[in-house]
Amino acid sequence: MSEVRKRTTVGDATSSAAASRDVSDDQKEDVESEDDAKLEVEDLAKTLPQGTDHTPHILSSILSGLPDRWRNWIIRTIFTWFMIAGFCLIIYGGPLALMITTLIVQVKCFEEIINIGYAVYRIHGLPWFRSLSWYFLITSNYFFYGENLMDYFAVVINRTGYLRVLVTYHRFVSFCLYIVGFVWFVLSLVKKYYMKQFSLFAWTHVALLIVVTQSYLIIQNIFEGLIWFIVPVSMIVINDVMAYMFGFFFGRTPLIKLSPKKTWEGFIGGGISTVILGLLMSYIMCQYRYFVCPIEYSEALGRMTMDCEPSSLFQPQEYTLPSSFQVISRMLNGKSTLTVYPFMLHSLSLSIFSSVIGPFGGFFASGFKRAFKIKDFGDVIPGHGGIMDRFDCQYLMATFVNVYISSFIHTASPQKLLQQVYSLKPEQQLQLFQTLRDSLENRGMLN
Questions:
Q1: CB contact at 8 A, 147 and 174
Q2: Taking the model in full, what pTM does it have?
Q3: pLDDT at res. 122
Q4: What are the contacts of 129-136 at 24+ separation with CB within 8 A?
Q5: Dist. CA 36–CA 34, nearest whole Å
Q6: Which residues lie below 8 Å from residue 333, measured CB to CB, with a gap of 6+?
Q7: pLDDT tens per residue across span 377-394
């Protein structure tokens, strides 16, 4: 009996030891999944391109005798003017050119963000991260751009049988595409690297939130009228350029630790310049229908059109000055009223946001880059860095403009209403028509 008890005790001890070894192995594996795969930040920085160090050979030779500070200033100035000229050329190309450019910029920004994640991910030799990232980008674009098409091309789409099916089930198809990517990710999980894979899965989705969602809002702003795209974008450019100029020549007081080169002098000088030049630009653009008319599909012409009677927002209105300003105006032999385009008052709000809040998009990007010890997201633009380095503030501005339009400007679009009408049953459409006709007759608007 004692021998049986002894054998049982020995067996239990052996089992406990084996279980302890299994637990310790699992714990060791968990530790390894975090520790053995770490990449030194300095090594990561060496694998990524640095745009401010990337300069054409000819230009480097010409400017080789100058101090680094002035050489960088000249290079930035030259390529800033190139970008401004290119932007003007794209505007001349019209809305389609602007939308295509927005899509290209979106893809490039996404690539630059994902490349940083891929530099971390590929050291494990794990599959599918890059493929999954691009798949989710395509899926997201299918959903968001499909929403835009339904909003602004509903009349045309509903007349085409196979397209109407895609419109009716657009969100369901988008969801199915996303689920395919979700299942794909789960199947790609590799034991020992779960934490890192889930971190990079979140990385991809944050990149999609920042890039794809904002580009979708930019497209919506363009459809409201080119002025709602050009003026905010130009304000960010003006603020960035003038803040750099004031900071370069007059900067003495550091502004924020995330960007040691940013100064209060540059911040204030850039803000004042943005308000003044933004108002001037708005005044000029309000006088041209090409900039102020919303982009709509014309059934009569069978194409998109930008011809309209400008709304009151873009027609001169007379405003009475506050009493304190009236006294000053009378002293200067001026009027007690002021005639301006109402859009200029909205432009003032946009310029203040772009001057005060817009730079924080750049500070956010600076913090991200500092976390990985890199100067720039890429090397596409000499002296400036990557595309994301130039558009970090633009995405924040695009969201504000879209929210501003929907809150203070936007009215119901006929295209959106027609889309909902076409989705009704025939008898419901007829009922709606009769109700609308009776209402118009009662108000004397229809004979």
A1: no
A2: 0.79
A3: 62
A4: 129/197, 129/200, 132/181, 132/184, 132/185, 132/188, 132/201, 132/204, 133/204, 133/207, 135/181, 135/184, 136/178, 136/181, 136/204, 136/205, 136/208
A5: 6
A6: none
A7: 777 777 677 788 788 888
Q: Name the E strands within 257-411.
A: 259-263, 296-298, 303-305, 317-320, 337-340
Q: How do beta strands 296-298 and 259-263 pair?
A: unpaired
Helix (H/G/I), strand (E/B), else coil: 336: coil
Euclidean distance between CA atoms 437 and 420, whole angstroms = 18
Cα gap 435→57, rounded to integer Å: 71
Task: Indicate the DSSP class of residue 53.
Answer: G
Give the tens place of pLDDT for each residue, 221-249. 998 899 999 999 999 999 999 998 999 88
Query: What is the per-residue pLDDT for 28?
Result: 46
In the prediction, which pLDDT does 314 show? 93
pLDDT, residue 35, reads 42
Integer angstrom CA distances of residue 382 from 49, 64, 75, 242: 11, 15, 7, 19
Low-confidence stretches of the chain (pLDDT beneath 70): 1-57, 59-60, 120-127, 150-163, 297-303, 333, 383, 411-416, 419, 447
- For every residue of 218-263, DSSP letters joined together read HHHHHHT-THHHHHHHHHHHHHHHHHHHHHHHH--SEEETTEEEEE
State how far the Cα of 323 lies from the Cα of 297, in Å rounded to an integer: 46
Domain residue ranges in the chain: 35-126+190-290+343-411, 416-446
The pLDDT of residue 65? 73
Closest CA to 256 of 355, 397, 362: 362
Exposed/middle/buried for 85, CB within 10 Å: 0-12, 13-18, 19+? exposed
Residues in the chain: 447
Check: CB of residue 356 under 8 Å from CB of residue 396. no
d(CA 126, CA 132): 12
- CB contact at 8 A, 185 and 132: yes
Pairing of strands 337-340, 317-320: antiparallel
pLDDT at 357: 92
- Rounded distance between C-alpha atoms, residue 339 and residue 313, angstroms: 13
Cα 435 from Cα 438, distance rounded (Å): 5
Secondary structure E strands in 96-209: none
Structure token digits, residue 320: 């009475």
Q: How far is CA 198 from the centre of its chain?
A: 24
